[in-house]
Amino acid sequence: MSTYDNIRKDIEQTKPLSIFGNIAFFGTLLAILIAAVPHGTFEPWHKAVLVTAISAFGMLRVADGVLGGGFRIAEPRLLAPLIGIIILAAAQLVPISAGYQVSLDPYQTQSFIVVFGGLIVCAELLFQYTRSNSELQKLVVLVLIIAIGSSLFGLFRPLVAGSEMDLFAGSLPTDQGYAQFANRNHFAFLAEMGLGLLAGILLKAELSHKWRLLGWIGCGILIYSIIDAASRGGLVSLTAMAIVAVFVHVMTRAGPRSRSRKKVARSRPLTKILTAASLCLLTFGIIVVLVAFIGGDTVITRIEQIDLEIATVEQSRVNRAAIWESTLKLIRDRPVLGSGFGAYGTAITKYDSSNGHFLLEQAHNDYLEILANGGAISAILFVLFAILVGARMTN
């Protein structure tokens, strides 16, 4: 019996959830759904409400485990590096000497510990309660509803902009935001998660013709909205995702049967590679055409501006080259423990080449920001987490 069959058999034999388990599971799903509405839980009070709700469901989870005969943390190896990040953030708050501690903004680091800790509890809840096909399907459907719903809202919001029907009128910048998010890149990140999940289901799951048609319509909505959002990072991720999906699908699908098995065994790898490469090139061409057709001048102009934001450093304007240069100076000064999680906005002021003319709150590069906030130790922990996730996926 294969590993997949063992996992599927284990899932199907999982006991139904208890009363506490049902409340914790469905409450967590509801919290995730609501959290996506107010700017993606952008404001501090949004985060406070979310963490409070997750904490309450976490206590129910503990009670459910104790009453069920014993409490055990779900997927402890996978969560260990994330818990290590919390420990590192707490260490950044410990005074090393009189008046000195690692975090340059203790309040923001404390806030990070609370919010990130809440996300870890949320992950543990989902690990524990998605052990059956029924619960896993509910979680998948929720993610797709949030992603496709946000995409539809982003596509139709311009039609009601400025009217009483615009729920976010005046609260979101029209030049940078998209859908309910204050930043188009945040929306693209959400849409890509939904798109990757949906593409995987369509390519590998057994679905009826009706659900497969609805799934491809959902894919079309997500792709159209990512292009319409004009997020350059989103477009790069979309292209990479589509090419990888096509390549993996072609290389892993079962080939046609043949009477001459030896001949098939010799020719199939080369044939699959050539077919996959051809389809990947075709996919890339289709995406380029879609970007030009759907995005129009807005997307093309933003793509043309990449050279101005990355290739050269200008002191008169904020661009990514200037931000990254300042961030690298911060990393060189604090290479091991960083400047404190959540403290980037305070720490970067010393290295800001614009002399305070522009407000820098993010490094606009996740890898540099991880190094700036938590140093080499945090980078090692996140790499370890990525390795464990990859190992878990292949088991």
Question: What would you say this structure looks like, in words?
Answer:
This protein is mainly α and 395 residues long. 70% of the residues lie in helices and 0% in strands. The protein has 14 helices and no strands. Helix 3 packs across helix 5 (106-129). The longest helix has 44 residues, at 261-304. It is globular and about 65 Å long. Residues 1-13 have low confidence and may be disordered.
Number of helices: 14
Query: How many E strands?
Result: 0
Distance between the termini: 14 Å
Low-confidence stretches: 1-13
Largest sheet: none
Elements, N to C (H/E):
HHHHHHHHHHHHHH
Strand and helix map with partners:
Elements: H1 3-12, H2 19-35, H3 44-67, H4 76-91, H5 106-129, H6 133-160, H7 184-204, H8 209-229, H9 232-252, H10 261-304, H11 306-310, H12 320-333, H13 344-347, H14 366-394
Helix pairs in contact: 2-3, 2-5, 3-5, 4-5, 4-14, 6-7, 6-8, 7-8, 7-9, 8-10, 9-10, 12-14
What attributes characterize this protein structure?
395 residues, mainly alpha, 14 helices, 70% helix, globular
Entry summary:
The chain has 395 residues and is mainly α.
